[in-house]
Amino acid sequence: MNSFIGKVKYLNRKRNLATTRLKIRLRMISHDNYMRKKTLLRPSEIKTIIIMMIGKGIGDAIVMTGLIKVLHDYGYRVSVIAEARNSVILQHLPFVEHFYLFKNNHEDQLMLSAIKQEEYDLLIDIENIDHHSLTRLNIIKYCSPEHTLGINQFARIYDTSLNHPKSRQHVSARHIAVAHALQLPVNTIDYFVDVNEQSMHDAQAFAKQHGNQKIIVINPYGTEETRNMSFAQINTLCALCNDTFNAKPFIIGLQSQIAQIPDDGRHIRFSLPDFEQAAAIVKLADVVISTDTSIVHLCRAFNKKLVCIYNNKISLNGEDNNTLWGPDYDNAVQLLSPGKRVDETSAVEIFNAASHLLIS
Description:
With 360 residues, this protein is of the alpha/beta class. The chain is 42% helix and 14% strand. The radius of gyration is 22 Å and the shape is globular. The model has no long low-confidence stretch (mean pLDDT 89).
């Protein structure tokens, strides 16, 4: 009976995803009235590039730092248009010439006019068709770059659309595909996150105050409820860390979320509120345990020992999230929950993986 119910739920999810994709495509078709003559992609003639990141989170921004750095290293002047939540990663990145803040309100007019005046040689939209596609399409129309490069796009506004297969590939594979389209000999992408000196000092002072011999960081909450650890998991993990390594783990995350965790003396809530300070404590950590992909990508940027727990999510475009947004580096251990929830994963299994990393 349970197997039958599971099959019905799976088919319903598939149908709902297909319906959503169809609705988005129909809306795009109704707005696809861009009549400018297409241009050819000529890498040797490109000097200025703008990358568009609309509707993307901090994890997406961290992954994007790799492509930005590659383009910069090969002599391109790279700018980015993104939302406020990504400014902490991208705004002061040394490889970004201009950071344009997208607010999705009337204030954007001046910002879009500034982009248009720059007359960018190439605009890159690396995302598949999604809920934000119409917004991105309208931005491209207004900014009118010399050439527009997209991924798996059908709208005429894209001069070049790379046919990126929906097979089991990490998201960085499409970044490499963009580099190859520009004739760059790139086969790997490494992320880059800079943490300022003050944030590092604050995190070091916090860690020293609590005197742990090992710095164990736990990020128990994701952006969706199904990515959250349970209180029982958190308590068991913390107890095992105390008993085995005489270390109270630092719990990081949104202050509103981690405040829900009972203060039972087994852990330490990381009370410094800024993302940069959280990034600093991750950089100092001996091992990190995370359910959230933004911290996973941050750990890859720092090459930290990591245990990450994924819940077998399928994206809007039918891609396997475990692979698409996986850690994809040697120092990481990826655990997959038995079902669709992180809290189904054994806390002992998570601890054993972290313990192995700590003593290796």
